[in-house]
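Sanity check record (used in CI):
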Amino acid sequence: MSGSVQSTVQLIVGLGNPGPEYSQTRHNAGVWFVQQLAHAFNTSLKNEPKFFGYTGKFVCAGQEFKLLIPSTYMNLSGKAVLAMAQFYKLTPEQILVAHDEMALEPGVAKFKLGGGHAGHNGLRDIMARLGNNPNFYRLRLGIGHPGHKDQVTGYVLGKAPASEQNLIEQSIDEATRCFDILARDGLVKAQNRLHSFKAG
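Expected output for Peptidyl-tRNA hydrolase:
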């Protein structure tokens, strides 16, 4: 089953910042995905101090998947990921990290394996804590770019206007549906469907 998630992904991580002041900001798009996945598979997320985050689990296509939303700030996301990876003896290739992606427009989402962190503090910390290993899966949730690097911090920590938020939520809905394909049929089929999706 080469390329199939059956032999790979077991942990899905949603990146964001904790607290109500951040919950609706663009940087929390990964959190929204994991919350939606938990809702779709009828599971709840519970605070788990030993994993520095909120965790849950569900079964899809006969396999158990674990969910994690770190309760640390974004730049310390790897602390929670490493704690769970060590406890469950997971390799980077068994981890899928959902995160906001400025290189993609709102309404676009893409799966990929490996790559750099492109300045994303959550990805940077996870890669560092996993021994500088970038070979985990990513779900890149497009949020667009403010147009200038000096505006990035305010942009990711700001709320998207309603029209953009709607597009982001559509892409998260589609990514949730595509997770089911990922679990049953593998990465390539899930990519084929998700990457052809355009919110509108």
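Residues 77 and 122 are 5 Å apart (CA to CA). If this sentence no longer matches the regenerated tokens, the check is flagged for review.
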